[in-house]
Every structure is written in C-alpha cells, then in structure tokens.
Design a protein that fits this description.
By secondary structure, the chain is α/β, with parallel strands linked by helices. Helices cover 43% and strands 20% of the residues. This is 2-dehydropantoate 2-reductase.
C-alpha cells in the first residue's frame, strides 16, 4: 500500500525529490524545516532542469510543520543537520511509528532523534547533486544510487521504504554497512565543503587541478586514519576514485557550503571537518586530523564573517 511521503526541507534536494516522486505518482508534501509565520499550505509549481536536457515540473503542496498533528507515512529529512536538535523536539508526538529517513551529510546527525527515542531511524547517503537556480527552479544531476541503511529499526522496514522511494531518475538501494557508506561520503564532504569554498571554486576543481587534488589526498588520509581508529576500514583508492567521480559529474556546480556562505547562512561544517576533529580529540589522537580541523575552522570563520557583513 502506498503511503504519503513528507519531505521536510524545501531546499535543492527536497524540491528535486518532490518533483520526481510526484511524477512517479507518489503522494508528496513538502514541509518547511524552519519555524514559519505562514500557516497556510501553498500549491507551488517546481521546475527541475535535469542534466539529460529534459525539464520536468510538478505542482507540490508546501506546508509548515505546525499544521500537522501527525505525519503518518514516510518522513524524509533534507534539511541541514545543524537544525536537527530543534527539529527532533518539534517532531515529538507527530511521527507515531512512521520511519524517519535522514538524507543529510555528516557524522552523528542521527543522534538528536535517537536521544528522544524515535522508533525507526534510517540514514541515506546522497549520491546526487542539486542546486537552486531560481525560486522553485532546481538543477539536478544524479551520480549513483543512494544507499539507505538502518540506524534503529528493522530490515523489513528498510526494504519497504526503499521500494517506495526508489525511482529511475533518483534511485535508492539497501545498504547493510551504512556507517561505512556514511564515512565514505563524510570524507568526500570534508574535501569538497572545505576546499571549494576557501578557493571560491566549483566542484570540478579536483579533476582539473593537480594541486587541489594533492590537498584533497591529505584530507582523505587524515579522515581515513580517524575512521580506522573507530573500526571503519575504507580503501584509499576507492575513496579517491569516488571523489573524482563526483568532481567530474558535478563539474561547474557549487558545493552547498559555498552557496551558504555567499548567502550569509550557517554551514554544515560542524558535522563534517569539525566532527572528525572532535572525534580524533576524544580518541586522544588530535594530531590525526590537524589539516582537516584547520580547514574546518577556516570555513567556520569565513561563514561567521559573511553573516556579520
């Protein structure tokens, strides 16, 4: 039986999924992740420019969380992870037994929801890029099928939600070793979300420039060392290969952190470079992440300066 799909977060990924799932015949509602003074539900036409040259569009209802007493279906979080503690509190009592799927970057982003005992929590590692071009117009480029795995829940629930969400234009797949996949993506994000904004360049820099790739390799090595300390074994060549694949396929696109800084918004760096550095500190080996931490601190400072100015 088809269940409603609630997408919390009206950003690039949220709007992309809303259009493609709506085109696939799903019952989709977008929900603004932030507190909003607009209580009404608007039906909004969203336009999606795909890299195959095809433009798709769909009219999707956009609402606010306070309008709902219960969200009975699949709940997808596409908001930035720094808002999770507040969002977890706002969702208490609204989700019942509905599964919560986090389509977010970073280490430990699920912890605020585990702390307040949400019964089913799943993580998705997004392997796609989207960028807002204009209000309710998004440019979308798929990279590979995005893995989803169990944080708290059951394999049967995982199979059901992947079956409901998986579509040709935005594929998903089951992943048993989800923390391994999370770490692989986190390492890539520690590279893209730090180096690209500091250089002021697009994601394609690493397949175009040898010096940028050399710096990326230093960050990869540091993050792999920290991951290894917590029992996550990853192959360095596989991680670098995936980073270059993303760089090539998202050539010309700006990483979300650079967009956030340009717009004076907070960034996700706390759950990326700085989270890796904090973990190294807790392990008693802070020197494992020296460059990773420094780049994260520079992004944090650049973000704060952009909001002051």
């Amino acid at each position: 039986m088809q269940k409603p799909i609630y997408i919390i977060g009206v950003g690039a990924i949220g709007m992309t999924l809303a259009v493609l799932l709506k085109q696939a015949g799903k019952d989709v509602t977008l929900i603004r992740g932030r507190q909003d003074s607009r209580p009404e539900t608007d039906d909004v036409k969203i336009i999606l420019d795909c890299t195959d040259g095809i433009t798709q569009e769909a009219t999707v209802p956009i609402s606010v969380l306070d309008q709902f007493t219960v969200l009975d279906g699949f709940i997808l979080l596409t908001t930035k992870a720094y808002g999770n503690p507040e969002l977890a509190q706002r969702l208490i009592g609204k989700t019942g037994q509905s599964p919560l799927i986090l389509l977010q970057n970073g280490l430990g982003v699920e912890e605020p929801f585990l702390d307040v005992d949400f019964p089913e929590v799943y993580r998705c590692v997004l392997l796609a890029t989207s960028q807002v071009q204009a209000p309710f117009r998004v440019r979308y480029k798929p990279v590979a099928a995005s893995p989803i795995g169990v944080i708290r829940g059951h394999e049967s629930g995982l199979a059901e939600l992947v079956e409901q969400l998986n579509i040709a234009q935005f594929p998903f797949r089951i992943e048993e070793a989800i923390q391994r996949a999370v770490w692989e993506k986190v390492i890539s994000n520690c590279v893209f979300n730090a180096i690209c904004p500091l250089l002021g360049v697009d994601n394609g820099i690493f397949h175009r420039n040898a010096l940028a790739l050399a710096l990326a390799r230093e960050i990869i090595d540091e993050c792999l060392a920290v991951a290894n300390e917590v029992g996550i074994g990853l192959n360095r060549l596989d991680v670098e290969s995936r980073l270059l694949q993303i760089s090539q396929r998202s050539d010309g696109q700006l990483i979300s952190t650079l967009v956030d800084i340009n717009q004076g918004h907070p960034t996700e760096i706390e759950s990326l470079n700085l989270a890796v550095a904090r973990l190294a500190q807790r392990l008693g080996k802070p020197n494992l992440a020296n460059r990773t931490r420094l780049l994260g601190e520079l992004i944090q400072l650049k973000s704060e300066l952009s909001r002051v100015s």
